[in-house]
């Protein structure tokens, strides 16, 4: 399957998001609504963006005790979402409970396990008590997630080649940490690749926020990234 683009809609207001969505309607399928927009505008905003014709990736990165996460999945099941994230470091019991709730309430939902945030490097991991290198920790958490019933992961594109060797072929690998050539550095993302590199590595989807949102023309920036993705297939 060709790699597809997901726009991370990380802006403060609906008014700021509206012209960006208007420009991308018809060319872009997936929009990621994350903590910034969800905490400000809530479930109604998810419904509103879906009503505009976009598929929704709800990136809430759930991480709590198993019962609480399972109940959150049940509550979110009434929303028009196609993907939802939880943190794999919540452990096997939490992921199994979340997946059981998904099967019972919204079987078509793809639950994605966030492995190691793309803003973390080895030094950052070590500060949290994780001695493993990021790629080793991603492999460990990725295998645990798939073993717990999940069919998709969020990781850096740098880890995709190794995960493709280790995991079943149908596992969806969603990769933020994308920076177009010449745009690397100067922000919080640490484990990065260009769109074309991520596609060649085997990402199912790439997630891009600021390189599109802060571009003089978000529509042109997104079109360029989509052309880069098509050029790799
Ligand atoms: O490990 C992760 C998990 C999620 N994200 C999210 O992706 C986007 C990336 O946005 P950029 O502006 O392109 O950096 C953002 O919404 C993050 O919450 C991630 O970056 N890394």
UniProtKB/TrEMBL annotation:
Q: Which Pfam families match?
A: OMPdecase (PF00215)
The Orotidine 5'-phosphate decarboxylase domain sits at 4-225
What Gene3D superfamilies is this protein classified in?
A: Aldolase class I
Q: Which GO terms are recorded in the biological process aspect for this UniProt protein?
A: 'de novo' pyrimidine nucleobase biosynthetic process; 'de novo' UMP biosynthetic process
The catalysed reaction is:
orotidine 5'-phosphate + H(+) = UMP + CO2
Give start-end ranges for the coiled-coil region(s).
Answer: none
Q: Does the keyword Isomerase apply?
A: no
CDD domains from the entry? OMP_decarboxylase_like
What EC identifiers does the entry list? 4.1.1.23
Print the keywords alphabetically.
Decarboxylase, Lyase, Pyrimidine biosynthesis
Binding-site residues for substrate, renumbered to this chain: 10, 32, 59-68, 118, 179, 189, 209-210
**Biological pathway:** Pyrimidine metabolism; UMP biosynthesis via de novo pathway; UMP from orotate: step 2/2
Q: Which SMART domains match?
A: OMPdecase
GO molecular function, a single term: orotidine-5'-phosphate decarboxylase activity
Which HAMAP family would you find in this protein's record? OMPdecase_type1_B (MF_01200_B)
PANTHER family xrefs: OROTIDINE 5'-PHOSPHATE DECARBOXYLASE
**In UniProt terms, what function does this protein have?**
Catalyzes the decarboxylation of orotidine 5'-monophosphate (OMP) to uridine 5'-monophosphate (UMP).
Q: Which family does it belong to?
A: Belongs to the OMP decarboxylase family. Type 1 subfamily.
What is the designated name of this protein? Orotidine 5'-phosphate decarboxylase
Which species does the entry assign this protein to? Termitidicoccus mucosus
């Amino acid at each position: 399957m060709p790699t597809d683009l997901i726009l991370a809609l990380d802006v403060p207001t609906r008014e700021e998001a509206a012209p960006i969505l208007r420009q991308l309607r018809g060319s872009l399928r997936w929009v990621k609504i994350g903590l910034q927009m969800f905490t400000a505008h809530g479930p109604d905003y998810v419904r509103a963006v879906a009503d505009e014709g976009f598929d929704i990736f709800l990136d809430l990165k759930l991480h709590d005790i198993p019962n609480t996460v399972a109940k959150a999945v049940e509550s979110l099941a009434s929303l028009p979402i196609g993907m939802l994230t939880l943190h794999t470091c919540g452990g096997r019991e939490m992921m199994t409970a979340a997946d059981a709730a998904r099967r019972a309430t919204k079987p078509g939902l793809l639950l994605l396990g966030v492995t190691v945030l793309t803003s973390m490097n080895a030094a950052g991991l070590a500060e949290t008590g994780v001695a493993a290198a990021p790629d080793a920790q991603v492999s460990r958490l990725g295998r645990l997630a798939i073993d717990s019933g999940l069919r998709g992961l969020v990781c850096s594109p740098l880890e995709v080649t190794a995960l493709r060797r280790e995991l079943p072929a149908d596992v969806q690998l969603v990769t933020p940490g994308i920076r177009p050539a010449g745009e690397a550095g100067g922000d919080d993302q640490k484990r990065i690749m260009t769109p074309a590199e991520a596609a060649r590595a085997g990402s199912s989807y790439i997630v891009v926020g600021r390189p599109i949102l802060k571009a003089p023309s978000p529509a042109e920036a997104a079109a360029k990234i989509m052309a880069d993705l098509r050029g790799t297939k």
